[in-house]
Amino acid sequence: MIHSETAFTNDYGPQRLTIELVNICNLHCSYCFRAEDALYNSKPEFLSVPVLRKVLSDAKRVAGTTRVIFTGGEPTLHPEFETVLSAVAESGMKSSFVTNGWHFERVWPAIAAHRDSVTHVAFSLDGITREENDRWRGGGSFDRLVRAFARCHFSSLPFAIKVVVRRDNSDQLEQIAIFAARMGANALHFVHTMPTSAEIDNTSLALDERRLVEEEVAVLSRIFKMNVAIDVGYYNIDAQPPCSPLAGTSMNIDYRGRLSLCCNLSGFRNGTDETDVVADLNVEPFVEAHQKMQDLSLAQHQKRINRLATMQAEGVTPDLFTGSPCLFCLHSFTKVPWHNSTDTEEPGIRSLPVFNSIH
Amino acid sequence: MNSTSILPGKHIVFTDFDGTEGILVDLNTKKYYQLNETAMLVWKGLEQGKTVDEIVGQVTTEYEISLDHAKRSVEKLLGNFQSYKLVTSE
Questions:
Q1: What pTM was computed for the model?
Q2: Residue A346 domain flag
Q3: Cα–Cα distances in Å, from A279 out to A76, A301, B53?
Q4: Interface contact B13-A153, CB threshold 8 A
Q5: Could you list the residue range(s) of the whole structural domain that residue A118 is in?
Q6: A282 CB neighbour count, 10 Å cutoff
Q7: pLDDT in tens, A46-84
Q8: What's the average pLDDT block by block, 10 residues per block, for chain B (90 residues)?
Q9: Nearest to A247 by CA among A256, A255, A239, A235
Q10: Measured between beta carbons, which residues in chain A are less than 8 angstroms from residue B32?
Q11: What is the pLDDT of residue A327?
Q12: How large is the ipTM?
């Protein structure tokens, strides 16, 4: 089962941690939402294995965590990647990771050695040809991804493909889905472009265009056997928690060992605040940090519910920075300081697309 | 077949599974092809720019089979590669 972060049902998946293993990345994708300085201009930092082991033990005991999703930066750049996988296996948990696939052949022996505890791998893809993909990710990236798909497919290791939806590929979702299915992917998760600067904010798909994308994804999810969903930036104005962090079923730990609300907020490019970080687990007990996180998660969800209720009372349809839970959190945690979230959409915008079960 | 040079298609991505098995991905058709040990040897030979005779020679070196048997096997494999448009002839 490959879980999507989208929660259009009441099922938020297992209790899990997203863990940023490293701050660095070997590729340079212009739309990436991690802070540029951390990725390319700072010294490499790696989550220490002793901290990881302690966090896993505490999270299992205190929060009932059973799954770990490794992110970065590029997680396979952690110099002790195999030990990291061992730590998860020894904790009795399951792991998966998000990768650009560049170093997949190198880390394959470590994955194969921990096949019982590695549930799947998620690969980032930008296009279904060498030209389309490597324009964003650099020469050679596509071939390495395809090799990784082949490796997973013929080793029966489930894999997901993640694609950022931009203006240039928003009309190619079906072709992308066919490609993913032919490669044997178990899941295809689309991600809206995150507003990492005023320029990207202004040139990204507008709310109506995003809704069309989400409707297309909903259609694809019904057509394809593999799980098709949209993971980040989707529009959802239901009263129930719209995502696992706000439902209290997932938390993030950054490469410094700090506990924060969501991997999509952490180290956000051009963000000016870190109020989504609740504790430094290098020095604070997990049990206290976890309580702070639960409080923050509840408070943030309530804040959004209140905002939605106010808009409903005023007869105003929520704008993108309220209707999208991700963008609401980005705005309220001061990750997008250039954005003035006073714009509203006219009432009557189409209703939320209905998604199938996303497990 | 021996007089022409056969090369792997540029639209093919090859993955070596520990030297005993390999996978070809055709980027035009988006299809996978699984190679056994002998097919791997032939494919790698083509990648290295070897002639058919050189590949046949390598097969006889690695496996205890006659030259005729090796030649027939290699030509059959090359025929398969050609019919699936995995290679180009120059």
A1: 0.91
A2: no
A3: 25, 19, 68
A4: no
A5: 16-332
A6: 13
A7: 999 999 999 999 999 999 999 999 999 999 999 999 999
A8: 78 92 96 96 96 96 95 97 94
A9: A239
A10: 150, 153-154, 184
A11: 94
A12: 0.91
Question: Total structural domains in chain A?
Answer: 1
**DSSP assignment letter at A152:** H
Examine residue A11 and state whether it is found in any structural domain, yes or no: no
Sheet with strand A258-260: strands edge to edge: A227-232, A187-192, A159-165, A118-125, A94-99, A67-71, A16-20, A250-253, A258-260, A277-280
Q: In this complex, is the C-beta atom of B30 within 8 Å of any C-beta atom belonging to chain A?
A: yes
- Asked whether residue A135 is assigned to any structural domain, the reply reads yes
In a domain, A9, yes or no: no
Q: Kindly determine whether residue B27 and residue A130, on different chains, have CB atoms separated by under 8 Å.
A: yes
CB contact under 8 A, A150 and B30: no
Domains observed in chain B: 10-84 (3.90.930)
pLDDT at residue number A110? 98
A195-247, pLDDT tens digit by residue? 998 888 888 999 999 999 999 999 999 999 999 999 999 999 998 999 999 99
Alpha-carbon distance of A282 to A258, in angstroms, equals 8
The whole-number pLDDT of residue A203 equals 84
Under-50 pLDDT residues of chain A? 7, 343-359
CATH number of the structural domain spanning residue A250: 3.20.20.70
Q: Do the Cβ atoms of A149 and B17 come within 8 Å? A: no
Q: Tell me how crowded residue A56 is: count the other CB atoms within 10 A of its CB.
A: 21
* Backbone angles phi and psi of A317, in degrees to 5: -75, 130
Partner-chain residue, chosen from B23, B27, B30, that has the shortest CB–CB distance to A154: B23
Whose structure tokens read 């605040």?
Answer: A273
C-alpha distance from B77 to closest chain A C-alpha (Å): 21
| Cβ contact, residue pair B15, A151, below 8 Å | yes
Distances (CA, A) of A276 to A29, A307, B70: 24, 19, 66
With beta carbons under 8 A apart, name residues in chain A contacting B15: 147, 150-151
In the prediction, which pLDDT does A353 show?
Answer: 39
CB contacts of B25 in chain A (<8 Å) are 146-147, 149-150, 183
